[in-house]
Amino acid sequence: MSYSDPIMSQTLAFGLIDFGAGNTALSFKGPLGMKGILREVTVVATEVFNSVTTGANVTIGTSGDADAYALVNLTDLGATDTFVASQDDTDGIINNVIPANTQVEMVMTAPTGGTPSGIGYVFIDIDWGA
What we know:
The protein is mostly beta strands. The chain has one helix and nine strands.
């Protein structure tokens, strides 16, 4: 497949995630028989992301390798900030090729230390093709 001309581009919207309240685990699968190219991870903050010891992050991987595809480390964000991995954590996407027919595991990890906080919408952009 030529990923410059994918069969389908998809934005997965995971809704409002309360990073400050603890870890949130989700999963997704691509269309049957299609490989994916992970293009972007975006978090749109609606509450300040505050960390003292470690910041919040998003991992995208498999049950055997939690960050096989991405480990995106979020910075402290203002209540209306937008975090875009390709601009704000340029090495966050580790391996952007998702094999066909694979369940992908995702964890939004809470910040630690002090009074952790952070709520935001999480979006993942993927191109799917044969």
